[in-house]
Amino acid sequence: MVGSLEQRLDRPHPATYIGSGKVQELVALRADTGAQVVIFDEELSPAQQRELERAFDNPNVKVLDRTALILDIFAQHAHTREGALQVELAQYQYRLPRLTRAWTHLARQAGGAAARGGAGGVGLRGPGETQLEVDRREIGKRIAHLKRELEEVRKHRAQYRRRRNEEAIPVIALVGYTNAGKSTLLNALTGSDVFAADQLFATLDPTTRRIKLPGGREVLATDTVGFIQKLPTTLVAAFRATLEEIAEADLILHVVDITHHNVEQQAATVLKVLAELNATEQPIITALNKVDALPESDTGDMTETNLGNTVAISALTGEGLPKLFACIERVLDEELVSVDLLLPYQRGDLVGLIHQRGAIDWEAHDPAGTRLRGRVPPALMPRLEPYQRIPATATARETDV
User: Fold this and answer.
1) Are residues 319 and 341 in the same domain?
2) pLDDT tens digit string along 261-308?
3) Tally of domains in the chain
């Protein structure tokens, strides 16, 4: 970056987003620095982008807004078919209303011919308008195709989630501001080698790994795309299939970069996006990551004052991970549902599932089947409800068991 400008406005200027005086200041700054790209940290309308480029009066100068820059970064990091589909859809949806800008030179040529007495009217349009219509039609077809492809991805994910629910394995969604350390934490928790880098949006595709907690219970942990402030609506729509993984999770693990100077605002942004995704019913554990990069005094104070579902950790060094595991187990235990069951012997599969996924407080066998009391994940309840017994006072035999 060779220079920057800021302006506080009550509302954006309809033509150029910033005021006319600030536009002239920007034009002068660009001329002084020789910059070829001007980036706005806001989303510009197609008309605003076009007017700003006209102000520079230089065909080599590009004006990009926040969304275009993010899409470019996403395109570099889309390594799977699903990620590529999502990014391509978002790019086309962003570019479609901006096609006019790409063909203004041809439109001007056609207009000039008509002004000089050339033929015009219906059926005799200039080449720029014809090409623009062709491009719009082709991009419209491509968008429709990409949406169909992603709908298939979404259906596949829904089927996968149903199978997971049948197994009643709790799912933990790792969320956080981009570059908070989610992928590094997933590697630390699972011993896997998910790609992790000190860069924005290193992870675009959800990655799921199995974790065995110290108490023996198995859970699935899913790494997700990093959040940002002012998340573009086109990205939310394109990444619908990915973001649904968060809304369907049993537990949300919010990873926070505690060393960032804007940590509170980043954490608030993540919670706001979760609310927009209707992912507010699940319990949340906050992992204050990168404590290894803090001064020793700050680290000591933080690790000694963990409150509620907040744990100070370092995904890089492993500091605090035992406390995080214990917190995950405790929160998942709190979510278990109490049951009092009489299961026919032919439903031994359910008995085994309860042993695997839940906690047995008491178990006995009689001619009618297996009787047990315990706690199970909510996902198991639809299959267990037909076998629920009316709670009764334990008999002496049951008490002695």
Assistant:
1) no
2) 888 988 888 888 888 878 888 899 999 999 998 876 554 444 444 446
3) 2
